[in-house]
């Protein structure tokens, strides 16, 4: 009875000591075995591990890739246009021993505060470097800038036992007080481009109109020239026909020409002519009377029927 009374507490104490000396390392964690603030061992492989109970303690850290959002800061690129920038980083604890020595008991909170300061400093340094303008930062071709920020931050973060996996810029905006000025400049640029396009369009239209006017003048000149040539050729052909007709029968040709003269001179109905009947103009009216015989006034005023009668005769 006495043995069982003493044995049971001993077994319980031994069981508690045995259980307190065993701990489990998850595959997502790394563990440090600490003894009086000193690092005794590192447990990076998942599974069961042992420590000295009551003397040693276990500190576990996350072994996964973690995320950190930086504070919004203002940067000034080389073209002196201020930008509001915030970024985020992906990091992991690569060396738990160095991490513990760098941050102590502060853990991830202290490490992230220091890493955020490193990232902000590198963002200002890279985005404010020479030949880095706001247009480059605001464009889609800024991957090279973020790679430079990542590489330079990684070098400094190694002293904290951290590995910076990636850095990205979440947003890059203009300060609110600069937006209106920027929009005004953009409007002015668009208006200038529109004015240039209008001027080029007017110039092109003027060239087209000038070409059309020249084409019209050239076409009219060529048409007039061709018309003059055709009229000249027709007149020459007409004169040739007249000359041939005159040579064939001069008397008939003279008679025909006289008829044309009568027609033109007596075209109007109220025409009056005062002429001597012995003139050559009335040569073909001599059949109406002898030469020297006065022609009646009616014949003088209306010579067209006499001409018609002579032509009929």
UniProtKB/TrEMBL annotation:
Any single biological process term in GO: proteolysis
Gene Ontology cellular component annotations, sorted alphabetically: membrane
Subcellular localization: Membrane
MF term (GO), any: peptidase activity
Superkingdom: Bacteria
Compositional bias segments (type: Polar residues): 299-313
Region of interest called Disordered, as start-end residue ranges on this chain: 290-313
SMART domains the record matches: PHB
Membrane-protein topology: Single-pass membrane protein
Family named by the database record: Belongs to the band 7/mec-2 family. HflC subfamily.
The protein, known as: Protein HflC
Protein source organism: Alloyangia pacifica
